[in-house]
Amino acid sequence: MEEPTEVKAAILAKYEITQDIYRQRFRALEVYPGETPRELYVRLKELFSKWVRPEQKSVKEISEMMILEQFLRMVNTEMEVWIKERNPKTAEEAAQLAEIFISARRSRGPCSFSRDQHFSRKSGQLLHW
Question: What are the TM regions of this chain, as residue ranges (predicted)?
Fold first, then answer.
């Protein structure tokens, strides 16, 4: 007979409920009509625990996870997707992947990695969006 944690892991895998799904739910959480502050806190804490799993990680690992998330939020969307496809475990790995991404695209002209800065390929001018 399977352990409860194994069954739970199998169900989560089947429905593709990953840590990133919990992160997205945590970040997108809204207050329900009529919800009390305590109820909101409980929902936030539950999603945070499922996302971060603090009982299984050190402070350094949690810090790295938060830095990685912020790093990915700051790079342009194309780069973010490319980096996520390579599944970096740390922000340092993500930064190394970003360098590879930029290096591979330099032949096309200037390449900015920031989400809010883009170069016009025609003029070579930096555009602020």
Answer: none
